[in-house]
Amino acid sequence: MDVRRATAVLAATAVLAGLTAPAAAAAPAAAPSPKPAAALYGEKDPTYDGVWRQSTALLAQHTVGVTPAPAAVDWLAGQQCASGAFAAYRADPAAACDAKTPVDSNATAVAVQALAALGGHRAEVRKATGWLTSVQNEDGGWGYLPGGPSDTNSTAVVVGALVAAGERPEKTLSAEKRSPYDALAGLQVGCDAPAGERGAYAYQPDEKGTLRANADATVAGVLAGHGSGFAVAPEDASGNASGDASGDASGNAASAGGGAEPLDCSGGNATGDRAPEEATSAATAHLIRLLAEDGHLTSAAPGADKPVPDHANTAEAVLALTAGGQRKAAEAPLAWLEKNSAEWAKGNPAGLGMLVLATHATGGDPRSFGGTDLVADLNATGPEPAATDGAAGAEPAGATAREAGDGSGGAELWWLLGGGVLAGLLAGGALMLSGLRKRS
């Protein structure tokens, strides 16, 4: 998902530059990579993943009872624009957001998941979810950028945000009375596809309108189908959706631990007109088949001549399976991660955060993961936590609730641009470039 999001940010920047720069102006010199703030997790350039990795790290810490440093929480809250939206990263959060600020659904949704879990940021969460619902597409889904065509990954991360904020995704309807699950149904590979692809999700239709199975999108679709964000409680793995939030959010029987059955094509069920629980069950079955091959998922990395292991998507697959009660199926990918993720996760707050969340979801101990203390390693990538031995669910000490940012022009320009321009810019590289932010 992460290269796709980075590509979207670059495309948005290109569009804005084309609209605002004189035709004869020379291209500006490349700006130096911003130096990460002291309160930000990780040392690499945060331009395309600052909010994502901060949110993932904070969510993971909170899930295992670590109280993050107040400055780290405040940094995330301070990235919000007055409209409620978040961009991937704002180097100067004191400056007002404007029409050039590339706000997006993904950064906004993952920030909601983190801030809602941490507590003390009700106003920020309310504004962010309000912005998300204001840019919902007519088909019920979301694109990466407001006004862009819906894609499975963006729709899924927004579903997770809505659930975290206490909203019901199936009741979050567009002007055409379509829910996020309607959008996902339209992105699921159906019975007119080869048997090995049926039930999977596509990221978006290709240039010919064909849906192509995509492992990254399938993982996202399964997690959303079970009505879950990234914080999956261990009891969810046994089919007991904690607080009924997971199961009730989607009206989905599969989220309560139902079985995983391949798409039923016996009755010509090729139109996408299927119940949400059937769609999720079929996608789960497809995901289990993918993982059965070698215990992990792969992706086409830039410059590689063949697919390479995708650690981040494999970790998210563990979350998706456990959210639906498929704990047995999650064992092999988690074991693969335990043996093979050390180098990938080193100094990688988003990666370490996902491993902590996946291990915790299955009832394992993130402090003893293949001989590694994931929690300690995650803590070391950011400011020193306020406490490391609290009960899960504790609110961070000293975290402040505030109205962040002071400019609301970020969303409006994207509506003026329209989905067609952005779709053309993003379509070429979206599927090939899968996983940058997760691997960064």
From TrEMBL:
Keyword S-adenosyl-L-methionine annotated: no
SUPFAM superfamilies given in the database record: Terpenoid cyclases/Protein prenyltransferases (SSF48239)
Alphabetical keyword list: Membrane, Signal, Transmembrane, Transmembrane helix
Ranges annotated as spanning the membrane: 413-436
Domain of life: Bacteria
InterPro entries xrefs: Terpenoid_cyclase/PrenylTrfase
N-terminal signal peptide: 1-25
Compositionally biased intervals (Low complexity): 236-255, 381-402
Region entry Disordered, spans: 235-281, 381-405
Protein name: Squalene cyclase C-terminal domain-containing protein
